[in-house]
Amino acid sequence: MLDSDSTRQLIVGAATRFDREVRASSSAYVQLRHHEVTTSTGRIEESSTLGVLLTPRHDGHRPWDTTTVRVHGDLELAPEDLQVYSEAWNRDLNNGDVVDQPSAEKIASR
User: Sheet harboring 64-72: ordered strands across?
Assistant: First the structure.
């Protein structure tokens, strides 16, 4: 979701588990979408993105948990990071491309 002046973005997601790989993948997704929006609008310094991830909780306190990631302004992402994030999240659904395991492992190791 993007506000009317394209400076505030909200991303909501859900996963069936929460672990290091899911946390890293969610963070990479938020950073990538923030970068893409700020690059296309040119409104880098005044832009913020908030990502909220819902995951199951298994400790009996409640059935779910939330994790948030907030980014603002220029993230100064390295080109290598952008490439890994893009390979993981910007796939061509028409030809059935999928993420290979080494790409997912690169995200989780950051």
Answer: 8-14, 48-56, 64-72
CA proximity to 47, closest of 66, 69, 27, 75: 75
Tens-digit pLDDT profile for residues 32-69: 999 999 999 999 999 999 999 999 988 889 999 999 99
* pTM score over 0.85: no
Alpha carbons 49 and 34: distance in angstroms, whole number: 6
3-class secondary structure, 58: coil
Say if residues 26 and 12 touch (Cβ distance below 8 Å): no
Are 96 and 66 within 8 A, CB to CB? no
| DSSP assignment letter at 2 | B
**What are the DSSP E strand ranges found in the chain?**
8-14, 48-56, 64-72
Q: Do the bridges between strand 8-14 and strand 64-72 make them parallel or antiparallel, or are there none, so unpaired?
A: unpaired
